[in-house]
Each structure stands twice: as C-alpha cells, then as structure tokens.
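FAQ: What does the model actually see?

It sees only this:
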Amino acid sequence: MSHWRLASTAFDTRASINWVRVRGLDSAGPYCQADSGLLIVLRGRGEFRSITSAYLEPGDVVTLPANGEYSLQALADDLEVLQLVFRGAPGRGEEREKSLQDVLVRNQQRLRAWLKSPYIGMLQDGTLVPEAKRFRFKQCIRVFSDVFQTFLFTRQAMCRAPEYHAVFHSHLAEEFGHNKLLAETMDSSIRTDPSLKATLNWFSHQMFKLDDAGKVAINLVLESAGYHFHSLASPKFQGDEAEAYFGTHAEDDEQHQDMGLTLLSAEHPATYRHLVQIVDQGWDMLEATTERIFEIVQAGDEAS
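And it is asked to produce this:
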C-alpha cells in the first residue's frame, strides 16, 4: 500500500485541502478526522468504506461527518482524491488544537487512575499471599503474555511505513519468547475465559485497523501500564518460579514506553486528537482486562 499527503494548504485557518493517492488495488485508512469535510474524486475508481460503502469514480463527492471513520480501496488504477476539511470557526468555543503533549498527558491521566484500581491493589494488600490466588494470578498473566506475543507479531506484519518497521522489529526481538518465562496455564477455565480473551484480543485486532501512528498509541498504553505493573510485581515474586518474568519486564518496559514517539513529533493536530481517542480506547480495554483478571483471582477464595 502506498498513499501519502502531497499537499496541504490552509485557507483562512478554517479549511485545509489534502491530495491523497491510493495505489491500484491497495487500500488506505482507516482515517478519522475531528472536523467535517468532503472527498472529491479526481482520478481512478475505487470504494469508500464507512458505516456504508459506496463506489467511487471521477467527479464523485463524498460528505465526511466529524469524527467519522472511513477507508479507501483503489480498484485497478490509482485512486486520487482531494480531502477538504472544514475546521470550526474560531472564537466559538472550538477546542484548541492538540499536540503530542496532549497525547502523553492523557496517557498519564489514565495511568494514574488505573494505578488506583483493585487489580494493582492486589500487589500491595496481601491478596496474592494465598497460594490458590497466587496461582490463578500467574495463570492469567501467562494468558496476557501469550496474547501480547500475538500483538507484537501482528503489529510487525501490518506495519506500513519503513521508519516504523525498524522500531517495531526491535521491540519484537527484545520481547520474543518472554511468555515462556511463565508456566503455561493448565487451567482451561482461565485459558478460555470469554471475557479475558475478548478484551485481550482487541489489542491485536487494532493492529489490523490502525495506521502506524495509532499502533504507537496502543503501545504507549500497554507499555506504560506494563512498566508500573511489573515494577510493583517484581519484588512480590522474588524467589518464585515467575521471578525471571517479572524482573525482566521491570527492567525493559521503561524504555519500551517511549518506543516510536519521536516519529509522532510532526503530525497534524487532527491526528493528535485521534491519538488521544485511541489512548482512551486502549485504557478502557486494559481496564476491562485487568478487572476481569481481578475477578478470576478472587474466585480462588473457594480453593484457598
């Protein structure tokens, strides 16, 4: 797939125009812009995919609602379109333009809230002292770690830009096989738990949907949470069979938080707004995952 922004021109700070080309038979997107706009087909034929789909040919105009997600598919020849984005009139309570700093601040806000969750509390209040709960906890973390390996491989396979490819590959190489530092789960009720599987698999699914910038935002969520979680867990599992797993991640995850962020330093403000949304979605799903792990561990009461 090859598509790029060839030109971007502002008009009275209220509108911008971008020229997008999608190579023949390739697809581009998904895109999501905070403001409404239009797509004008200049050349080629293709398909517009959103809540509904539409066939595109030269001269067609597609209305884009604010915050609507869409993708483009070229048919046979290159598809060239003009993307017009109409920004809200200034001075009417319009939200200020977002930056990478806004993405990082939002991630820290969600992280601080998550660190007060019952899931993190288990590492601090003695919940994991009983062997039954400790065992179930490690079983859940092995399931998490298995899926994280799938996440890494999927991200690598779906990477689109060369500059991201090298960054993602180094992360994959560093993390490869870390799941095997934990004993494989033998508890089928945990391994096949529908809620746990669904929330965890969401992260891998995003690697098919999101562009490379979005993939970095998801990684920011996972690695920020991972660094603090493993740092808290590592002292609790010294002398345990899982000591190597928690110790390794406590050392590595701090640098993994920043992976790829330098590549986001020159994005459009609308992209940063979208990345803030992705960060929130990532934390929503991570909270759902860890809430389910907390419930599974608490179910060990009957065995303890």
